[in-house]
Amino acid sequence: MPMKTVQRKGLNFEGQNVYIGIDVHKKSWQVAIQTETGYEESFRMSSNHVEELRKHLTTNFPQANYHSVYESGFSGFSTHRELISAGINNIIVNAADVPTMQKEQVTKTDVIDARKLVRALRKKSIEGIYVMTKQEESFRELERHRDSLTEDIGRLKSRIKHLLHRNGIRFEEKFGISG
Prior knowledge:
Structural class: alpha/beta
Radius of gyration: 26 Å
Order of helices and strands: EEEHEHEHHH
Number of helices: 5
Helix content: 25-40%
CATH class of the largest domain: Alpha Beta
Strand order of the largest sheet: 3-2-1-4-5
CATH superfamily of the largest domain: YqgF/RNase H-like domain
Oligomer: single chain
Number of domains: 2
């Protein structure tokens, strides 16, 4: 009995990896996508619209394993957490650790940066940095804020002392000692 050939309708990337490089900026993201078979695409999207990216991936690469990467920076870990919760395996890398060709150092654009990230991710030539828990991140913020306030207090004390000195107002020596 001959085998019956069935034509598939629709896309199916089950078991395949899809790699996503994201050049993250405040207002927009440059996204580069590569599949294991070599298909590539690049596009710009509004920043921090993880749901929009997820819809694009599930529409164009259904049932695939999604792997993304972006460089550490101003956006912190919140984007990472959103990507993970959307079902996209993500790593954050130090920008200095991303392999860069000479041509990419001379000509630097968002498109080139996103493609560089996706290429490195696909080749597994980069490792992610440690991602802090929300609690660790909160403690770090608190410590930074305390340091900032301490510096502000020191600057204000110095201004007051200089103001008094300029106006010929003497103050006890114990107030002139730092600390």
